[in-house]
C-alpha cells in the first residue's frame, strides 16, 4: 500500500520574515529568536555622530582630490597649464570621477584660473598663484623642520617592539607626520648617528636610552600633570587616566560610568617604558627585567589575566600607543587602515578598529569619504584644532580657498584685468615670457618649433 505524503507549501504572498500563528499543523515548530548583532560594523553605524568632524572629513576629502590633480598636472613636461579638454582626461587619474571638468572649474574659481590660449585660442586652465604659493610654503616649512621630523621618527622607533620600523609604514603616514617626500635620504640617512638602515625597508634606532628623559614623556602626561596641579585631583585618579570627551547627544548606558572610572585607574605599561614595575594587584608588585619585546612584558601578567585585568591592561597600552601616534601627527588624525601597518612593529595584536570603537570618548572614526579617518577627540573643538601648527595653518588656508566656492569672485576679476594689460607675450613651455619690440615674427617662428610640445589636445 502506498502512502501519500503531503507537503505544505508556503503561500507566495507571505514573506520569509512574516511569523506564522500556531495551529494544528505547526504547533510543535520551534522558533529561534536571533540576537541583535553586536559587531564592529553595527557599532560603527549606530555610534553617536560628530557633525563637525564629519564635515571636516568631507572637506578634506575634496581638498585631497584637488592636491592629487595638482600632482598629476605638475608632473607634465608641457607647462603648468593644460586645456580644459585635457583636464577631463587627467581628472580620473586623480580620483575625480563624479564631476566634469567644466563643473570643477566653475565650482572652485579661487583654485583654478581659466584663460584663452593666445595662439590656439582654446580654453585652458591652471592653478592660481595663491594656491601654488601655499603649496610651496608648506614644502618649505616641512623641509625646515628637520629637528621635529627627527623627533617624530625617533619617538615612533622608541615605542616599537624591537626598535625597528618598516619604511613603508612611515611612507604611508608621511603627509600626516609632516615628513618630506624624500625623508629616507634627507632625514634617516643624513642623521646616521641616530638611525641605522638594517635593510632597504627597515630602519633601526641606534640608541634607545633617553639620557635627559624628554623622549620618554608622552603627550598625555602633560594633561595629567595639569589635572593634578590645577584641579587638585589625587595621583591615584590621574596617573593612568586619559582625557575623555563624549560627543553631544552621547547616551551613557547604565553602569558605564563605573566601568570607565575603573578603567581610568587601571595601571598599564606606558608606551616608552622599558624597565617596568607592573602592578598585578594593589598589594603586590612585580619588577620586570629590562626587555624590548612587548609580548614578553605582557606575558608576565598572563597569570590571573581575568582576575587582575590583564587583557584590559594590554588593551590600555594599545590605546596609549595609538594616542601617542595621533599626537605626533600634524592634524591629530590618521586613516584607520594605515594604522594597521604599525601593528607588528608596535606590538599591537588587538583589532585596531574594534579598539577605537570601544573608546568613543578618546577617538572618533569618521566615515565621510572612501577611507575611515580616526581623530583624537581631545585635540579638536568645534571642528578646529585647539593647538594649531604652521603646517596645519597652511593646509587650512588651502581648505578655505576651496570652501569659498563662487563667493568673492569680484576680487578675481580685478586681478584678471590687471593681468590682461597689453603685453608682448610669446608661448613658452614654462609659462609666458615677455618680449620687447616686434613679437609677431618670434611667435610665427616658435609656433612651428613648439607645435608638438604645446599640443594640449
From TrEMBL:
Residues 414-425 have a biased composition (Basic and acidic residues). Transmembrane segments: none annotated. Residues 48-405 form the PORR domain. InterPro entries: PORR_domain (IPR021099), PORR_fam (IPR045040). It comes from the Eukaryota. One of its GO terms (molecular function) is RNA binding. Residues 414-433 are annotated as: Disordered. Pfam families: PORR. The lineage of its organism: Eukaryota, Viridiplantae, Streptophyta, Embryophyta, Tracheophyta. This is PORR domain-containing protein.
Amino acid at each position: 500500500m502506498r502512502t501519500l505524503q503531503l507537503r505544505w507549501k508556503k503561500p507566495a504572498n507571505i514573506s520569509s520574515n512574516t511569523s506564522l500563528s500556531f495551529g494544528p499543523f505547526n504547533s510543535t515548530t520551534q522558533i529561534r529568536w536571533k540576537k541583535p548583532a553586536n559587531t564592529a560594523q553595527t557599532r560603527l553605524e549606530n555610534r553617536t555622530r560628530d557633525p563637525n568632524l564629519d564635515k571636516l572629513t568631507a572637506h578634506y576629502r575634496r581638498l585631497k582630490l584637488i592636491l592629487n590633480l595638482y600632482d598629476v598636472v605638475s608632473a607634465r613636461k608641457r607647462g603648468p597649464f593644460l586645456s580644459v579638454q585635457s583636464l577631463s582626461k587627467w581628472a580620473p587619474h586623480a580620483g575625480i570621477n563624479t564631476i566634469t571638468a567644466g563643473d570643477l572649474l566653475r565650482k572652485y574659481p579661487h583654485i583654478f584660473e581659466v584663460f584663452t590660449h593666445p595662439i590656439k585660442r582654446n580654453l585652458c586652465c591652471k592653478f592660481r598663484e595663491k594656491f601654488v604659493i601655499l603649496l610651496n610654503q608648506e614644502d618649505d616649512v616641512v623641509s625646515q623642520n628637520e629637528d621635529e621630523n627627527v623627533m617624530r621618527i625617533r619617538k615612533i622607533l622608541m615605542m616599537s617592539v624591537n626598535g625597528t620600523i618598516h619604511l613603508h609604514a612611515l611612507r604611508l603616514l608621511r603627509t600626516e607626520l609632516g615628513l618630506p617626500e624624500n625623508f629616507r635620504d634627507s632625514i634617516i640617512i643624513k642623521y646616521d648617528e641616530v638611525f641605522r638602515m638594517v635593510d632597504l625597508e627597515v630602519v633601526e634606532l641606534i640608541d634607545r636610552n633617553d639620557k635627559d628623559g624628554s623622549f620618554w614623556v608622552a603627550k598625555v602626561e602633560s594633561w595629567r600633570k595639569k589635572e593634578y596641579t590645577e584641579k587638585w585631583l589625587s595621583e591615584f585618579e590621574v596617573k593612568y587616566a586619559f582625557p575623555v570627551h563624549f560627543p553631544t547627544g552621547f547616551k551613557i548606558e547604565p553602569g558605564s560610568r563605573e566601568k570607565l572610572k575603573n578603567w581610568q585607574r587601571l595601571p598599564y605599561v606606558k608606551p616608552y617604558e622599558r624597565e617596568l614595575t607592573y602592578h598585578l594587584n594593589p598589594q603586590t608588585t612585580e619588577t620586570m627585567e629590562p626587555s624590548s619585546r612587548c609580548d614578553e612584558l605582557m606575558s608576565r601578567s598572563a597569570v590571573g589575566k581575568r582576575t587582575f585585568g590583564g587583557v584590559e591592561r594590554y588593551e590600555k597600552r594599545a590605546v596609549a600607543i595609538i594616542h601617542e601616534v595621533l599626537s605626533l601627527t600634524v592634524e591629530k588624525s590618521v586613516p584607520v587602515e594605515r594604522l594597521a601597518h604599525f601593528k607588528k612593529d608596535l606590538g599591537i595584536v588587538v583589532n585596531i578598529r574594534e579598539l577605537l570603537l570601544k573608546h568613543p570618548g578618546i577617538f572618533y572614526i569618521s566615515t565621510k569619504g572612501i577611507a575611515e579617518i580616526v581623530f583624537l577627540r581631545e585635540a579638536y573643538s568645534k571642528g578646529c584644532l585647539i593647538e594649531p601648527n604652521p603646517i596645519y595653518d597652511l593646509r587650512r588656508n588651502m581648505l578655505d580657498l576651496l570652501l569659498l566656492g563662487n563667493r568673492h569672485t569680484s576680487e578675481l576679476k580685478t586681478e584678471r584685468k590687471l593681468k590682461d594689460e597689453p603685453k608682448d607675450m610669446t608661448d613658452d613651455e614654462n609659462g609666458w615670457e615677455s618680449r620687447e619690440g616686434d613679437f609677431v615674427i618670434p611667435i610665427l617662428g616658435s609656433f612651428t618649433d613648439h607645435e608638438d610640445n604645446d599640443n594640449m589636445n
